[in-house]
Specification:
Keywords: 4Fe-4S, Cytoplasm, Disulfide bond, Iron, Iron-sulfur, Metal-binding, Methyltransferase, rRNA processing, S-adenosyl-L-methionine, Transferase, tRNA processing. This protein is of the alpha/beta class. The protein contains twelve helices and twelve strands. The protein has two domains: 55 residues, DNA polymerase, domain 1 (Orthogonal Bundle), CATH 1.10.150; 268 residues, Aldolase class I (TIM Barrel, Alpha-Beta Barrel). Strand 3 and strand 4 form a beta hairpin. The two termini are 30 Å apart. The structure holds S-adenosyl-L-homocysteine. The site of S-adenosyl-L-homocysteine (SAH) has 17 residues, from strand 8 and strand 10.
């Protein structure tokens, strides 16, 4: 298989040009075709010499994701199920907001983190995605939006997989997305979400970017977090919180804590009170997510009134908090639901 051209940074493409006896500016032209004009073949890159186009085609592929299905919600949310070259399938979601279009990307086929409420982890980890496979999700979504003159304005790494267990590919992807000569997505409009892979959190704090970090906290203490997220036994609550504090101190940026409310499990006012105490004085924001139903998991949702009460307790503790707006309910848009369905139907 030919390597994917989306795996490479602009500097690497320029280097390749040099090594192949081409002027360095050809790297910039190639980059422009890929990320600004977004063509689907080297053949279409009309300002590159024909011999160069042929050489590129010989050495590289422009990864095109094979669209298995697409679901469009009444609210504008679009969910893609993409097939990869090795027959694995991944999910990508476009969310339409009044302030722009946000895309939710996947970083791994499956996941090994094992959160008890999550559909993505049900079949375990199959493999990491390459940087190019993550890039291709955004480029493909952007190509769809091109038809209506819309653009991808923000990215959340909140699809399937743990980005911090696929760190290098994730960072290459991020560097490509924020490149000013490419898609030029604002760093502050990108969020990476992690289940708390502590060493990667320290590394990320040193990357010197303005990209947002979100931590899936989901519980206010070590014991309950270990029950919901087995990864908490590998990286205990205290260590994760220390890594968060380090990130804030190092970057001066606030952290978002994601908290999925699960009926009767982590959604009592006592939990909110404990969380408020743990987060006291931290530069942070809490995002409450009413848990999405996963048929294989028998969790129930928190009643609306209790969600508001949870929010009020946090607010009284001076913690900034919002409730996640939900989209795409009618199309199983959440967290691995579609892929799980697809695997089920292909297994039948
Ligand atoms: N692995 C990373 C990123 C992917 S998940 C992480 O754990 O952060 C994006 C968010 O969706 C995480 O906060 C995850 O815990 C949450 N999530 C997973 N399943 C969910 C469900 N059934 N309901 C609500 N949130 C869920």
């Amino acid at each position: 298989m030919k390597p994917c051209i989306y795996d490479y940074t602009l500097e690497q493409l320029q280097e390749w040009m040099k090594e192949n006896g081409e002027p360095v500016f050809r790297g910039g032209q190639l980059f422009d075709w890929l990320y600004v004009k977004r063509v689907k073949s080297f053949e279409d890159m009309s300002n590159l010499p024909k011999s160069l186009r042929e050489k590129l085609d010989e050495h590289y592929s422009i990864l095109t994701l094979n669209e298995i299905t697409r679901f469009e919600s009444k609210d504008g949310t679009v969910k893609f199920l993409f097939g990869l070259h090795d027959s694995h399938a991944i999910e990508t979601v476009i969310m339409r907001h009044n302030y722009g279009n946000s895309i939710c990307v996947t970083t791994q086929v499956g996941c090994r983190i094992g959160c008890t409420f999550c559909a993505s982890t049900l079949g375990g980890l199959k493999r990491n995605l390459t940087a190019g496979e993550i890039v291709a999700q955004v480029v493909t979504a952007q190509q769809m939006l091109d038809a209506t003159g819309e653009r991808v304005s923000s990215i959340v790494i909140m699809g399937s997989g743990e980005p911090f267990e696929n760190y290098d590919a994730t960072m290459t992807f991020l560097r490509l997305m924020i490149h000013e000569k490419g898609l030029n997505i604002g760093q502050r409009h990108i969020t990476v979400s992690t289940s708390g892979i502590v060493p990667s959190m320290y590394k990320f704090a040193d990357e010197n970017t303005q990209i947002n970090l979100a931590l899936s906290i989901h519980a206010p203490n070590d014991a309950l977090r270990s029950k919901l997220m087995p990864v908490n036994r590998r990286f205990p609550f205290e260590d994760v919180m220390a890594a968060c504090r380090h990130y804030i101190a190092k970057t001066g940026r606030r952290i978002t804590f994601e908290y999925a409310l699960i009926g009767g499990v982590n959604d009592r006012p006592e939990h909110a009170q404990e969380l408020a105490e743990v987060l006291q004085g931290m530069l942070c924001h809490v995002n409450l997510i009413p848990v999405n139903h996963v048929p294989e998991r028998n969790y129930v949702r928190t009643p609306r009134e209790d969600i508001f009460e949870f929010q009020r307790v946090l607010e009284r503790g001076k913690i900034s908090v919002t409730i996640r707006r939900e989209q795409g309910h009618d199309i199983a848009a959440a967290c691995g639901q579609l892929r799980a369905k697809h695997m089920e139907s292909t297994a039948r």
